[in-house]
Q: What sequence folds into this?
C-alpha cells in the first residue's frame, strides 16, 4: 500500500460493540490517529457505561441498541465478553451491511466461530480476531492508545474468507501498533490455553488456596507475600465475567493443558518427596532457558 | 536505643560465608553505612567467586577457608544455599568465638535448625534468619544496597535464645532497611511454602509444560507468550542450586501446599468441565480481593 493510501481512513463507519479496556482503547486510537475510520460509533450493554463513554468523549455516536449501532458500518468489532456473543450476533446479524467486516477481540476463537458464524449474512466478511493485550484494569476508563503497541493480534479467518478483507483487517491492527499473525481457530485455542488461560487459572486458584490458609495463619500469608506470590496476584486481579467466559469457551484446550501441567507438577512432587536433586535442578534450568528465549524474542 | 548508640557499628568483625546476591548485598551495605560492623570478611566456595568479590572491593578481608573466616568474628552469617549448611557448620563450629551470633539467610528454617544446630558450641547465639528479598539474578555482581529496603526479615530463634542477641540481630536487619518479625521455624516453613516455594514450583513446572508443547507448535508458544506466561517466566528465572536446596529442605510443607493447591485446581477443572459459571466467577473475584488486600498492606 502506498504512502498516500496510508493516510486515508480504512473505514467509513466503525462500530464498537462494547467499550471496556479493549473497545475504549480502539475508540481512543481511532480518535487520536484518524487513519482507522471517519466515524466511530460505540455501543455498551448498560446505560451507565455508555454515559461514561460519552463523558470521556470516546466516539462520534453513542448507541444503546447494538442493532442500530451496526447499521451502515463497514467494520463491526465485538468487544464484549465472549459469553455474550451468541445473543449479540442474533441481534445484529440482520442489520449488518453487505460488504462489512465483522470481527471481534475475544480470547477464544472456536467458540466465536460456533456462536457468531450462524448469524453472519451472505456478503459479510466474518474474520475472528484476538489482540493479545490487556492490563489488570477494565471498563471505559481503562483504555489507552498504546495498548496494542508491539503486541500480537491473531486473526483466525474461516475457510473461504476474502483475502482482501483479511488484508484490510490486518492493516487495521498494524495501524493500532500490533503485529499480526493468521492461524486457524483450533490451533489458536491450544496456544492461548497454555500461554494465557492456564496461567490465569493457576493464579486464581493459588490465591484461593493461600486465602484459605490465611484464615488459619492470621493474615501472615498476605503480610509476608514474597515476590513469587505478588506476581501471581497481579495476574489474578482480572475481570471475573471475562475470565469466566474464556474458561467456559475454551474448555477442551484448557482442560488438556491443565492435565499436562498437573502430570508435570506431580512428577516434580515425586522428585521432591524422593530427593531427586538432578530432576529438580533440570526443571529450574529449563525455566531459565525459556526465560532467556523469551527475552531474545523481545517479548519480555 | 539512643541516637548516639545508633551511630556505633553493631559488630567488630562480620563474617559472611558466601557472597552471592544476599551476601554481597550485606557486604555492600556494611561498606556503605559503617553502622553494621567495623570489619567485614567474606568467604566463598570457589576461588573464582572470591576473586570477583575482591575485584568488586566488597570487604576488608577475603578468606578461602570458612573456618578461618569465622575466627574472631562476633557475627557470622551463612549466605550459601541451604543444602551446603551441614558441611559448613561442621567445618566452622569449632572455630566460632564465644558470645558470637551465628545466623543465616536461607529460605527454609527447620532444616537449618536440624543441620546447623548440632554444631553450635555452648555460648554461641544461634538465631536462624530469612530476609525475604531477592531478584532473578545471582552471584557477587548481583547485590545492591537497597535489596532489603522495606522487605521482611523473619527470625526463628530456637528455644532459650538470649533476648539481647535477638534484639541485636533485629537491629542489624533494621539497619539494612528491613522490617523484622520473629516466629517459630515450623510456622515459618508453612508460610513461605505457600507465599514463595509453591509459586516457584508452579512457575518452573509450567515453563516445562509449555516447552514440551512448543516443540509441537514450532515456537509459537514462546512467540505469543501473553502477559500471564511472561510473569511466570520472571519467577522461573531463578538460581537452580538454591531452589533445588529449598525444595528438598522444605519437603513436607511444600508437598502439603502443593496437595492443597492441586485439590483446588481439580475443583476448578471440574467447574470448567461442567460449566459451573458461578464457581469460576467466585474464584476470580477472590483473586481480586486478595490482590486488593495485598495492595492495602503496601506489599505490592
A:
Amino acid at each position: 500500500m502506498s504512502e498516500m493510501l496510508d493516510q486515508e481512513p480504512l473505514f467509513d463507519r466503525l462500530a464498537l460493540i462494547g467499550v471496556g479496556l479493549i473497545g475504549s482503547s480502539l475508540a481512543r486510537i481511532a480518535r487520536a490517529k484518524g487513519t482507522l475510520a471517519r466515524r466511530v460509533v460505540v455501543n455498551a450493554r448498560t446505560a451507565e457505561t455508555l454515559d461514561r463513554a460519552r463523558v470521556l468523549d470516546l466516539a462520534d455516536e453513542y448507541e444503546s441498541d447494538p442493532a442500530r449501532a451496526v447499521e451502515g458500518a463497514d467494520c463491526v468489532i465485538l468487544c464484549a465478553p465472549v459469553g455474550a456473543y451468541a445473543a449479540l450476533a442474533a441481534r445484529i446479524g440482520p442489520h449488518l451491511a453487505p460488504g462489512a467486516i465483522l470481527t471481534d477481540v475475544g480470547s477464544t476463537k472456536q467458540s466465536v466461530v460456533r456462536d457468531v458464524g450462524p448469524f453472519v449474512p451472505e456478503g459479510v466478511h466474518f474474520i475472528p480476531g484476538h489482540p493479545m493485550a490487556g492490563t489488570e484494569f477494565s471498563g471505559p476508563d481503562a483504555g489507552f492508545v498504546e495498548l496494542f503497541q508491539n503486541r500480537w493480534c491473531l486473526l483466525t479467518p474461516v475457510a473461504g474468507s476474502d483475502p482482501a478483507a483479511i488484508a484490510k483487517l490486518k492493516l487495521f491492527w498494524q495501524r493500532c501498533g500490533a503485529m499480526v499473525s493468521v492461524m486457524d481457530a483450533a490451533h489458536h485455542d491450544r496456544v492461548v490455553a497454555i500461554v494465557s488461560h492456564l496461567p490465569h487459572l493457576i493464579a486464581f486458584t493459588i490465591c484461593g488456596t493461600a486465602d484459605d490458609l490465611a484464615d488459619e495463619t492470621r493474615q501472615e500469608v498476605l503480610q509476608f507475600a514474597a515476590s513469587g506470590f505478588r506476581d501471581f496476584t497481579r495476574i489474578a486481579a482480572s475481570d471475573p465475567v471475562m475470565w469466566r467466559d474464556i474458561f467456559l469457551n475454551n474448555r477442551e484446550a484448557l482442560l488438556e493443558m491443565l492435565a499436562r501441567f498437573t502430570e508435570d507438577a506431580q512428577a516434580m512432587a515425586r522428585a521432591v518427596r524422593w530427593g531427586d536433586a538432578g530432576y529438580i535442578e533440570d526443571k529450574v534450568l529449563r525455566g531459565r532457558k525459556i526465560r532467556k528465549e523469551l527475552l531474545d524474542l523481545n517479548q519480555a
Q: What stands out?
A: Chain B has a mean pLDDT of 91. Chain B has 13 helices and nine strands. Chain B has two domains: 3-183, 187-296.
